[in-house]
Specification:
Order of helices and strands: EEEEEEEEEEE
Number of strands: 11
Radius of gyration: 13 Å
Mean pLDDT: 94
Oligomer: single chain
Shape: globular
């Protein structure tokens, strides 16, 4: 079992920054990769970013490339999502997820555990 708890969401103006955190507990953190997804009201879940179990490999969705950075601190059992140059269209609930499959994936169906989410609202 893995428990995930997101934090760091909030209200920010367009152009601003936020850093989301996802603290993991349960199984050894270095045995699973992590991902961030988001979902806005009335829209499908969207892949944001993923990081490998070692933290050395990353993958980003096209809409956030160059603006968001994912990182994994295995010593702190925490994954981060640094979000810069935020836009109103980034407004959504953000969810972290854990996968025990090898590699890095944007496929939500590959993720075994999910957090409860944290809301990010970007005003124009």
């Amino acid at each position: 079992q893995v428990q995930l708890a997101e934090s760091g969401g909030g209200l920010v103006q367009a152009g601003g920054s936020l850093r989301l955190s996802c603290a993991a507990s349960g199984r050894t953190f270095t045995t699973y990769g992590m991902g961030w997804f988001r979902q806005a009201p009335g829209k499908e879940r969207e892949f944001v970013a993923a990081v490998s179990l070692s933290g050395g490999g990353t993958l980003y969705g096209d809409s956030v490339k160059g603006r968001f950075t994912i990182s994994k601190d295995n010593a702190k059992n925490t994954v981060y999502l640094q979000m810069n140059s935020l836009k109103p269209e980034d407004t959504a609930g953000y969810y972290c997820a854990a996968t025990f499959r090898g590699g890095i994936t944007s496929m939500s169906t590959w993720y075994n555990y999910w957090g409860q989410g944290t809301q990010v609202t970007v005003s124009s």
